[in-house]
């Protein structure tokens, strides 16, 4: 499985042009296909879900083409009659393609078989099929009753009457029914059973149907009438708005990372309900400004995101973004009325709770709500994404809350936002790292500590971790690689006020012995030991920045470090320095054996198979044989990017 490591971010600011809305794109494609006349669709979302719809339309004989020069999709409408009356359609996990096509095909008098990925076959469709049956459609379940896959036959459409459909599971059932109703040629009265959820999505449907010439009458949100004889007519050109749900990640980034972050493509005039995410952000104290076609978010003036308790039924998709923002709020947050999350790409309530817990968040999960209590500190985790684009996009925001994350299967964002992570990285700046690598006694530690102090950055002496593993190994009499890796995994080390503790005992001087150094370079050659210490080292990357020294800081631990240096000196100079250092501490030393030990250790560090000591092409060489400490510090400080 592919994974993506995201570093902790220190700020977010900039502008992002949003891809087209998925909800609008797939509705427009179907309406353009059913309409009389040619429609030129501009700014269409190009993603997995729209590809499923385009593939299905081609299979059904609807002529369309991508006019690359004009940057639009041209659909030749079939005036309500699909040319291909017998077909198999595979619709992946695209609910916005599966539900409306089921309804349109059920009322179009052909024989069709519709299927999707395994998760699509777990997403309920029974309420829509029941409603279609009331109209006389012939839809049968090929697998489990109430779920795809489906077989659609030629039904006998009944004239007049009222169809009832449940509105409290997925608003897509009502959308599908509304969009397909004109194919019957007769007036269709639809009554919604139960409280209609996600009403803004129905507004999108009604708005787009009107753009294609069909006006639906509605009484509140319970009763809808599609007039008899209504036919779709192409509006000619139609523009797809930017995706308001996708906007939520960038607005959240502006709120969490200082901002301002501006999204272009949605704004005050949007027909998408998820623009109301901006109002939710205002309740957290976020500063929002809006134009006709843009929205901008900056951190609260107070610097603190306010805890919230909100009914989020009207913005179910964007609400997921709030669940991750909650980890940075100033108290427990409650996301209410989100039961529809359970029947989306995955059970999003369960998935969100599981993954938030992995990064150290306390989460209470209820049938239709989630309570999130922000922790003092977050920890790195590998986030499972459940083939759900929104899980992947949401969890990228954790990087603005103080920790890096690994996103498993990042390509799942292709469902709605191919290129999401590039867009995210274009507005989010990683916590800066100065990586200083080099051989023993070259002066890395001395220089790194001084540079860190002058910048006000954190400091990582990575060699001390290997020395601690070595000491614990020597003391415990551990010899085999797996057991040494287990020591590294659970290393009971603490760094307190300049002292280094192992299981609570002060080992600051003990780990500096040459015996420990030699053993350190042996345990450091064990790949499992290096793996065990990887995240522990990365956790030092915290605002405002880090200076890290060792052998693989620039190559493995922080390959994206903003500045990389390779500090070295002749063996003679280094042996002299170490000799002086030991003498000052009152420890016995012999210059010849020190020189030999340093050479052997460097040779072992340079020859090992994993993370060997070497100068990287992008590291600045600092030859310190003839430099004083002050000169070496100045040399490095002047070259920090
Ligand atoms: N440019 C320099 N000129 C003279 N002495 C130096 C210079 N840089 C460092 N030293 C001295 O050399 C000694 C070893 O330096 P330091 O411990 O920083 O090296 P290191 O590369 O971190 O070593 P190790 O890898 O073994 O931890 C220290 O006493 C330090 O003061
Ligand atoms: N990033 C690192 C740092 C250290 N090592 C190994 O630990 C030994 C001791 O390191 P010092 O910097 O404290 O001298 C060193 O010889 C290396 O073998 C490492 O592998 N990677």
TrEMBL record:
<feature type="domain" description="Cytidylate kinase">
    <location>
        <begin position="434"/>
        <end position="639"/>
    </location>
</feature>
<feature type="binding site">
    <location>
        <begin position="438"/>
        <end position="446"/>
    </location>
    <ligand>
        <name>ATP</name>
    </ligand>
</feature>
<dbReference type="InterPro" id="IPR001986">
    <property type="entry name" value="Enolpyruvate_Tfrase_dom"/>
</dbReference>
<dbReference type="InterPro" id="IPR027417">
    <property type="entry name" value="P-loop_NTPase"/>
</dbReference>
<feature type="binding site">
    <location>
        <position position="171"/>
    </location>
    <ligand>
        <name>3-phosphoshikimate</name>
    </ligand>
</feature>
<comment type="similarity">
    <text>Belongs to the EPSP synthase family.</text>
</comment>
<feature type="binding site">
    <location>
        <position position="390"/>
    </location>
    <ligand>
        <name>phosphoenolpyruvate</name>
    </ligand>
</feature>
<dbReference type="GO" id="GO:0036431">
    <property type="term" value="F:dCMP kinase activity"/>
</dbReference>
<feature type="binding site">
    <location>
        <position position="23"/>
    </location>
    <ligand>
        <name>3-phosphoshikimate</name>
    </ligand>
</feature>
<dbReference type="GO" id="GO:0009423">
    <property type="term" value="P:chorismate biosynthetic process"/>
</dbReference>
<feature type="binding site">
    <location>
        <position position="22"/>
    </location>
    <ligand>
        <name>phosphoenolpyruvate</name>
    </ligand>
</feature>
<feature type="binding site">
    <location>
        <position position="415"/>
    </location>
    <ligand>
        <name>phosphoenolpyruvate</name>
    </ligand>
</feature>
<keyword id="KW-0057">Aromatic amino acid biosynthesis</keyword>
<comment type="subunit">
    <text>Monomer.</text>
</comment>
<keyword id="KW-0067">ATP-binding</keyword>
<dbReference type="InterPro" id="IPR013792">
    <property type="entry name" value="RNA3'P_cycl/enolpyr_Trfase_a/b"/>
</dbReference>
<comment type="pathway">
    <text>Metabolic intermediate biosynthesis; chorismate biosynthesis; chorismate from D-erythrose 4-phosphate and phosphoenolpyruvate: step 6/7.</text>
</comment>
<feature type="binding site">
    <location>
        <position position="348"/>
    </location>
    <ligand>
        <name>phosphoenolpyruvate</name>
    </ligand>
</feature>
<dbReference type="InterPro" id="IPR011994">
    <property type="entry name" value="Cytidylate_kinase_dom"/>
</dbReference>
<dbReference type="InterPro" id="IPR023193">
    <property type="entry name" value="EPSP_synthase_CS"/>
</dbReference>
<feature type="binding site">
    <location>
        <position position="172"/>
    </location>
    <ligand>
        <name>3-phosphoshikimate</name>
    </ligand>
</feature>
<feature type="binding site">
    <location>
        <position position="170"/>
    </location>
    <ligand>
        <name>3-phosphoshikimate</name>
    </ligand>
</feature>
<dbReference type="GO" id="GO:0009073">
    <property type="term" value="P:aromatic amino acid family biosynthetic process"/>
</dbReference>
<keyword id="KW-0963">Cytoplasm</keyword>
<feature type="binding site">
    <location>
        <position position="317"/>
    </location>
    <ligand>
        <name>3-phosphoshikimate</name>
    </ligand>
</feature>
<feature type="binding site">
    <location>
        <position position="95"/>
    </location>
    <ligand>
        <name>phosphoenolpyruvate</name>
    </ligand>
</feature>
<feature type="binding site">
    <location>
        <position position="123"/>
    </location>
    <ligand>
        <name>phosphoenolpyruvate</name>
    </ligand>
</feature>
<keyword id="KW-0547">Nucleotide-binding</keyword>
<dbReference type="GO" id="GO:0036430">
    <property type="term" value="F:CMP kinase activity"/>
</dbReference>
<feature type="binding site">
    <location>
        <position position="27"/>
    </location>
    <ligand>
        <name>3-phosphoshikimate</name>
    </ligand>
</feature>
<feature type="domain" description="Enolpyruvate transferase">
    <location>
        <begin position="12"/>
        <end position="422"/>
    </location>
</feature>
<dbReference type="GO" id="GO:0003866">
    <property type="term" value="F:3-phosphoshikimate 1-carboxyvinyltransferase activity"/>
</dbReference>
<feature type="binding site">
    <location>
        <position position="22"/>
    </location>
    <ligand>
        <name>3-phosphoshikimate</name>
    </ligand>
</feature>
<keyword id="KW-0028">Amino-acid biosynthesis</keyword>
<dbReference type="GO" id="GO:0005737">
    <property type="term" value="C:cytoplasm"/>
</dbReference>
<dbReference type="InterPro" id="IPR003136">
    <property type="entry name" value="Cytidylate_kin"/>
</dbReference>
<feature type="binding site">
    <location>
        <position position="344"/>
    </location>
    <ligand>
        <name>3-phosphoshikimate</name>
    </ligand>
</feature>
<dbReference type="GO" id="GO:0006220">
    <property type="term" value="P:pyrimidine nucleotide metabolic process"/>
</dbReference>
<comment type="similarity">
    <text>Belongs to the cytidylate kinase family. Type 1 subfamily.</text>
</comment>
<keyword id="KW-0418">Kinase</keyword>
<dbReference type="GO" id="GO:0005524">
    <property type="term" value="F:ATP binding"/>
</dbReference>
<protein>
    <recommendedName>
        <fullName>Multifunctional fusion protein</fullName>
        <ecNumber>2.5.1.19</ecNumber>
        <ecNumber>2.7.4.25</ecNumber>
    </recommendedName>
</protein>
């Amino acid at each position: 499985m592919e994974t993506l490591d995201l570093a902790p971010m220190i700020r977010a600011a900039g502008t992002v042009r949003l891809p087209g809305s998925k909800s609008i794109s797939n509705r427009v494609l179907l309406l353009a296909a059913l309409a009389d006349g040619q429609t030129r669709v501009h700014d269409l979302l190009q993603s997995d879900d729209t590809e499923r719809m385009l593939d299905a339309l081609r299979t059904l004989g609807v002529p369309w083409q991508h006019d690359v020069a004009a940057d639009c999709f041209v659909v030749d409408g079939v005036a309500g009659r699909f040319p291909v009356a017998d077909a198999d359609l595979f619709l992946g996990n695209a609910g916005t393609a599966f539900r409306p096509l089921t309804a349109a095909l059920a009322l179009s008098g052909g024989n069709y078989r519709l299927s999707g990925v395994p998760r699509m076959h777990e997403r309920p469709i029974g309420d829509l099929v029941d409603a279609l049956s009331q109209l006389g459609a012939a839809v049968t379940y090929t697998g489990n009753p109430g779920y795809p896959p489906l077989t659609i036959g030629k039904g006998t459409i009944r004239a007049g009457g009222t169809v009832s459909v449940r509105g409290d599971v997925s608003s897509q059932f009502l959308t599908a029914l509304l969009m397909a109703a004109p194919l019957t040629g007769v007036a269709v009265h639809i009554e919604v059973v139960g409280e209609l959820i996600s009403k803004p999505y129905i507004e999108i449907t009604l708005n787009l149907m009107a753009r294609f010439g069909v006006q639906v009458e509605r009484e509140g949100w319970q009763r809808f009438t599609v007039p008899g004889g209504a036919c779709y007519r192409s509006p000619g050109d139609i523009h797809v708005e930017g995706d308001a749900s996708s906007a939520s990640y960038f607005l959240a980034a502006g709120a969490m990372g200082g901002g301002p972050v501006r999204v272009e493509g949605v704004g005050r005039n949007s027909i998408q309900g998820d623009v109301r995410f901006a109002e939710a952000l205002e309740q957290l104290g976020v500063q929002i400004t809006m134009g006709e076609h843009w929205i901008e978010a900056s951190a609260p003036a107070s610097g603190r995101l306010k805890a919230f308790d909100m009914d989020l039924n009207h913005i179910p998709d964007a609400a997921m973004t709030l669940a991750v923002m909650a980890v940075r709020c100033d108290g427990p947050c409650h996301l209410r009325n989100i039961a529809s999350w359970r029947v989306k790409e995955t059970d999003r309530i369960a998935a969100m709770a599981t993954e938030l817990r992995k990064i150290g968040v306390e989460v209470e999960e209820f049938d239709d709500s989630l309570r999130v209590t922000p922790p003092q500190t977050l920890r790195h985790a590998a986030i499972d994404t459940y083939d759900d684009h929104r899980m992947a996009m949401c969890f990228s925001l954790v990087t603005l809350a103080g920790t890096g994350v690994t996103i498993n299967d990042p390509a799942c964002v292709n469902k709605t936002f191919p290129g999401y992570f590039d867009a995210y990285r274009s507005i989010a700046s990683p916590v800066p790292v100065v990586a200083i690598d080099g051989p023993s006694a070259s002066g890395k530690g001395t220089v790194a500590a001084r540079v860190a102090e002058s910048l006000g950055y954190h400091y990582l002496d990575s060699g001390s971790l290997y020395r601690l593993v070595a000491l614990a190994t020597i003391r415990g009499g551990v010899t085999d690689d797996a057991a040494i890796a287990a020591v590294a995994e659970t290393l009971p080390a603490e760094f307190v006020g300049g002292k280094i503790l192992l299981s609570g005992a002060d080992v600051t001087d003990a780990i500096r012995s040459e015996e420990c150094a030699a053993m350190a370079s042996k345990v450091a050659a064990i790949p499992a030991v290096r793996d065990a210490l990887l995240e522990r080292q990365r956790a030092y990357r915290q605002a405002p920045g880090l200076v890290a020294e060792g052998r693989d800081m620039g190559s493995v631990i922080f390959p994206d470090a903003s500045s990389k240096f390779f500090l070295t000196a002749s063996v003679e100079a280094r042996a002299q320095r170490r000799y002086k250092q030991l003498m000052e501490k009152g420890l016995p030393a012999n210059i010849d054996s020190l020189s030999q030990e340093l050479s052997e250790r460097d040779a072992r560090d340079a020859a090992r198979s994993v993370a060997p000591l070497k100068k990287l092409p992008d590291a600045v060489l600092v030859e310190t044989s003839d430099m004083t400490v002050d000169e070496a510090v100045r040399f490095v400080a002047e070259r920090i990017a």
